[in-house]
Predict the structure of choline-phosphate cytidylyltransferase.
Amino acid sequence: MEPQSSGEMVLSRKRRRESSNGEPEEGERLGKIPRCTVGLKNPAPFADELEPARNKPYERVSMDEAKRGTPFDRPVRVYADGIFDVFHSGHARALMQAKRLFPNTHLIVGVCSDELTHKYKGFTVMNEDERYDAIRHCRYVDEVVRNAPWTLSPEFLARHRIDFVAHDDIPYSSAGSDDVYKHIKEAGMFAPTQRTEGISTSDIITRIVRDYDVYVRRNLQRGYTAKELNVSFINEKKYHLQERVDKVKRKVRDVEEKSKEFVQKVEEKSIDLIQKWEEKSREFIGNFLQMFGPEGALKHMLKEGKGRMLQAISPRQSPNSSPTREERSPSPTFRLPFFSKTSPPPSPPHHSGARGYLISEDDDEDD
């Protein structure tokens, strides 16, 4: 199976609309990217370490041919140059745009030397070897040109077989020229890219200069000497004193924050305890009233006990349906035949001398 170039791998993916700086447009939903190793395993080689090009005439490709896609063995050779001091994401994004200009791109990056940079632009933070090495390890770079020229001559373009030059479209005035890329644009070899706003080497240096004292104190705490930082003896002591004062302030601030947290926790706990106490007290009062209140269970229990006691000590009453002795009808009396109607009433039965007496049913029942 024939190996695929990075440009062909880009073509095999689903095309996405991009904004001017190479980022997907806002509102576009990106899908998941499959896990794969697409970066190079080794740093990009230097141009002067490569074998010379084959003895073929230098024939540039047109813009239309480059956009349609060139054969695998004939990538579009794009050149991008710069200082690349304090290499940052803005540099990497510019190189990414240059790499993605065409489906099959071989990106050559030129890095100017310290001599040219200090002459035309100013002092750098990183030296040329550090800047060369930083570019070599950028994933989008295929080849690095050391000691790149400040302006591009036709001989330089032909020697490196450059098809297009990538740079932002803002006129770059330097070395007595209003735009050092003017002749490249006139030749139709210019491929514009977009700058990343909000970050640049000058911005980073400005931050360091603005917060100079902070970074000096930081490095002193990390073990750098005052001599290495070019700091006087008095300033060194001043920075150490400021560091101690700041430590005390931080400790006081930490204690205040912890005390606030403690007080807040105590308040939360106290509120919680008060609420629980109120709930328990309401429950206790409710249970007390339910037991000992005017209509509580204790009153009903006492009433019920009193009723049982009274029932136990009182005599048993006759049924309501049985008549009393007075309500009973008088029993018929029987008179012996030898008693006359005019005879005196009989004496009570307990007198033994009586000759006649009445016998009733009640007497019989009593007997």
Observations:
- Residues 202-303 form one domain.
